Amino acid sequence: MSQTPTRADFDRYMVPNYAPQQAIPVRGEGSRLWDQEGREYVDFAGGIAVNSLGHCHPVLVEALTAQANKLWHLSNVYTNEPALALARSLVERTFADKVYLCSSGGEANEAALKLARRWAHDNVSEHKHRIVSFSQSFHGRTLFTVSVGGQPKYAQGFGPVPGGIVHGEFNDLDSVRDLIDDDTCAVVVEPMQGEGGIVPATPEFLHGLRALCDAHDALLIFDEVQTGVGRTGTLFAHEQYGVTPDILTSAKALGGGFPVGAMLTTDRVAPAFGFGTHGSTYGGNALASAVALAAVEHIDTPEVLEGVKRRHERFREHLEAINAKHGVFREIRGMGLLIGAEMAPAFEGRAKDILPLAIEEGVMALIAGPNVLRLAPSLVIPEADIDEGMVRLERAVARLVAGQ
């Protein structure tokens, strides 16, 4: 590189589908980041719930380095040891019998939806293709997944979109009863809506969806791209509800920052993806699989998962203290280390205004829609970093309240 890239280079060279903050981080360690000018930040964003073990965690660095000196990529004309080890680990830790590996959450959900339709086509009828999803859901950015997602803004201008998709209301079982029928092949739902505002499902809702799917011979798909791999304090969020899906999707925290996704399913459903029906060039990549295996094995331990629950309470206490002082939040909700603070009516739609103020104060945060401040830090963030980051976040909130 002959010159140091700047934020202006983004506007000059990159397609304008993102609007990144002005700071450019260049180094990370644990839950701290440093930018080009050497300014330090506490990271509560976690790469949008991706950096499950923070930045440059030694377990992941070791796995990546070791595999990088052995084998990177083969294609799916061959298999490889890390992919097989990862698949076995996921099967042994979950309800699943079979695993499909890919490169992202969008790919995982695309595969899940295609599998559901193919299963219904092969086992029941070509007419059994309807998919029930939910308003405010988010399942990816492919044309299929963005159509299944319940936020029309993401599909605007890309039509015509795939058909056979209907949307009920999240946590409203009656709305699903009005939509599901014997031509429904699947119901897809997030156990906790992420982009839709950090809204956990009620137990009655998920149990009711399972019963409705069973009654109509439809598959239940849990999108755990954002809630999975320890994010909520169990390996997958659905475990806390006692509801078992037919298909589950995972990505984000699965690779701890390395791009990887997975779709998990049962022996009943998996045969519908016979040879040649679906694929992913990078799916099961040896580098990605080695890192993901290390992440899963490190996260799925009592120390890490119990620590997630403990850290949740620490974040909540800080947010409640900030709210008691400044009155900016209407509700604080979430599970584990996926936390949302909905803005109070006086600050309606202004969650995004906190982000640049937070950056100036030295803390990185997220939003989940215009009205919810979202925190998705490392699952092993030190408690001292939580405390320091929340001091900085309070300064940002105080500036928002003061109109700065």
TrEMBL record:
KW Oxidoreductase (keyword) present: no
Reaction(s) the record says it catalyses: N(2)-acetyl-L-ornithine + 2-oxoglutarate = N-acetyl-L-glutamate 5-semialdehyde + L-glutamate
The record's free-text note on cofactor binding: Binds 1 pyridoxal phosphate per subunit.
Binding site residues for N(2)-acetyl-L-ornithine: 141, 280
GO molecular function: identical protein binding; N2-acetyl-L-ornithine:2-oxoglutarate 5-aminotransferase activity; pyridoxal phosphate binding
Cofactors that this protein relies on: pyridoxal 5'-phosphate
Pfam families named among the record's database cross-references: Aminotran_3
Similarity-based family: Belongs to the class-III pyridoxal-phosphate-dependent aminotransferase family. ArgD subfamily.
Additional information: May also have succinyldiaminopimelate aminotransferase activity, thus carrying out the corresponding step in lysine biosynthesis.
Assembly mode: Homodimer.
Protein name: Acetylornithine aminotransferase
Organism: Billgrantia gudaonensis
